[in-house]
Specification:
Shape: rod-shaped
Number of strands: 8
Structural class: alpha+beta
Radius of gyration: 66 Å
Helix content: 55-70%
Number of helices: 13
Distance between the termini: 100 Å
Strand content: 5-15%
Largest sheet: 6 strands, mixed
Length: 585
């Protein structure tokens, strides 16, 4: 379809409607005029010419009655025979009055009526009155003598005048009837013309809609369907009136925008695929790296610890056997060797514990944190005895997780709070829980030295220390283990910077849902490990709890593993759950 840049569709439709409206209005006006004429002609036929004919017949009957009464009186000489004559005269006057009223502006008919009246009066004066008077005076013979052929002819002339009047009335009626018929025909013609105008306007509107709307829209829809099938290079042509052409232009602009966006998407997809390939390669590298790390963990747990234990054992033997037998410098060197071997062993144990989190697992179960706090109280009893520390906790929830890991988590936090105490101030540690949405927010708060806000994120990084090992001993891995355990359980951990007069470390754990209770779902599948690694277990993580790390020095958290790698049993909880207070003096 060729481009149409002429009148707009609105202008075309308005012009057509106005033209048709004007034509129909003219036809309606003409029909109104003709209908009025038809109504007037019909009224004259029904209300004028019809009554005129009736009154003409009445007038003729009245004159005939008068002539009959005069003849009867002349024959019988009886007075009652004159009654038709008197009644006829009355009827004549009434009929003439009605005829004069109905004839109105018909001068010819009124002249004929006047002629009838003149001849009727002349007949009465020359015939009827003389006959009546002669009969009364001289008898029947005198009256009959006056009724001659001449008088009969005179009455016949009067009857002929009435006939002429009736003929004029008939012609007037026929004229009005013809006018009714002609105006009716004109009305019919006008109605036919109006119907023809409406029909032509409808056909013109239909053709215009087909040419200006349906056709262009159909063509535009076909082009849009081609684009919709994937041919985004198909240019949308402008067709039809300006409105449809404008719509086509908008669709074309949209097509160009979609085509440009698709090109960007293709480029982005190519970039994403390239990035995915790189990520896949990196993932493969990570898998290989993890295998190497696992191999390293195996070597650390077997090949490194065995000679390290030997070095540490013989250094300790040298220290015990030759202490005081050598000079002071030799004793110092032996002490350095023993301390280095012990710190190396603690560091290896902590690294192994950190690597095993989430890799060696017994599966998630429902864990009562109140029971966990009892175990933590037992594990940290020695450190709390040494520092005269006070451990309390509020009612804690039941969550899903690994009990050993959660115990290690809280034990690290409590040990940190006990270790980083203020001088000459007995430590106070309180553990509480609050539900926030779909998570439990658990807080471990103390009255220790606190944490500066600028170091709030640094303390959770492995091997990051804020103090020297002489001031606060440790390996710097405790809070890194805390963070890894929390994230393994689907939570997050942070330092509450708004707390003053100590520190508060908060972490979240998911709320135990009904679905989890019904399904009894497990955590991640246990990763395969060597017998020696399994023997070491997750509980082998040292509770050095400092954020700086640390071992089992006095004041450190006493965890599942001592500084020499020997497992030491806990003493168990020393109280009941819910608002508990564990105080060791």
């Amino acid at each position: 379809m060729s481009r149409d840049t002429g009148w707009s569709l609105r202008r075309r439709v308005v012009t057509l409607c106005v033209t048709v409206g004007l034509v129909l209005a003219g036809l309606a006006l003409a029909e109104a005029v003709v209908a009025a004429q038809n109504r007037q002609a019909t009224e004259r036929v029904l209300n004028v010419t019809g009554p005129l004919r009736v009154q003409g017949e009445i007038l003729l009957n009245a004159l005939v009655n008068q002539e009959t009464g005069v003849r009867g009186f002349a024959v019988t000489e009886q007075a009652d025979e004159l009654e038709p004559y008197e009644v006829g005269r009355t009827q004549e006057r009434a009929a003439v009055d009605q005829l004069n009223r109905l004839l109105g502006n018909q001068p010819a008919a009124r002249a004929e009526l006047a002629e009838v009246e003149r001849q009727a009066e002349q007949w009465r004066q020359s015939v009827a009155e003389p006959v009546i008077a002669a009969t009364r005076a001289d008898g029947r013979a005198a009256g009959q003598a006056l009724l001659t052929d001449a008088t009969r002819q005179q009455f016949d002339d009067l009857r002929a005048a009435i006939g002429d009047l009736q003929q004029s009335i008939l012609e007037l009626r026929q004229e009005n009837a013809s006018r009714v018929e002609s105006t009716g025909n004109v009305l019919v013609v006008l109605l036919i013309v109006a119907a023809a105008v409406v029909l032509v306007a409808g056909v013109a509107l239909l053709v215009s809609l087909n040419r200006l709307v349906i056709g262009p829209v159909t063509a535009l829809a076909g082009q849009v369907r081609e684009v919709a099938t994937g041919d985004y290079s198909r240019v949308i042509e402008r067709v039809g009136p300006p409105e449809v052409a404008g719509l086509a232009g908008d669709v074309e602009a949209m097509r160009r925008k979609i085509a440009a966006d698709l090109a960007e998407v293709r480029d982005a997809r190519a970039s994403i695929e390239q990035a995915n390939e790189q990520l896949q390669k990196q993932a493969e590298e990570l898998v290989r790296s993890n295998r190497d790390l696992e191999q390293f963990a195996y070597v650390a747990s077997h090949d490194l610890q065995e000679p390290l234990r030997k070095v540490s054992s013989f250094c300790q033997l040298l220290q015990r056997r030759y202490a005081g037998q050598l000079d002071e410098r030799a004793d110092q060197y032996i002490a350095f060797a023993v301390d280095g071997a012990q710190r190396m062993q603690r560091l290896i144990n902590d690294l192994l514990a950190f690597s095993r989190i989430g890799r060696l697992t017994s599966g998630f179960t429902e864990v009562d944190l109140n029971k966990v706090m009892g175990d933590v109280a037992g594990q940290t009893e020695a450190a709390r005895q040494y520092t005269d520390a006070e451990l309390t906790w509020s009612e804690l929830p039941v969550v899903r997780g690994e009990e050993a890991l959660l115990t290690n988590l809280i034990a690290n936090l409590v040990s940190n709070s006990v270790k980083f105490r203020k001088p000459d101030v007995p430590p106070k540690v309180h553990v509480s829980a609050e539900r926030v949405g779909d998570e439990w927010e658990i807080t471990c708060r103390d009255n220790g030295i606190g944490i500066e806000p600028e170091f709030a994120d640094k303390i959770f990084v492995i091997f990051q220390r804020l103090h020297s090992k002489d001031a606060y001993p440790g390996t710097g891995i405790g809070l890194a283990i805390v963070k890894k355990i929390v994230e393994y359980h689907g939570g997050r951990v942070w330092v509450d910077a708004e707390v003053t007069g100590g520190s508060a470390i908060r972490f979240t754990l998911p709320v135990l849902t009904d679905a989890a209770e019904r399904t009894g779902g497990e955590g991640p599948d246990p990763a395969a490990g060597t017998d020696d690694e399994a023997g070491a277990g997750t509980a082998g993580a040292a509770v050095d709890g400092d954020g700086d790390g640390g071992g089992t020095q006095p004041g450190d958290g006493v965890g599942a593993t001592t500084s020499d790698g020997i497992q030491r049993p806990g003493t168990g909880p020393a109280g009941e759950t819910g608002g508990m207070k564990e105080t060791v003096a």
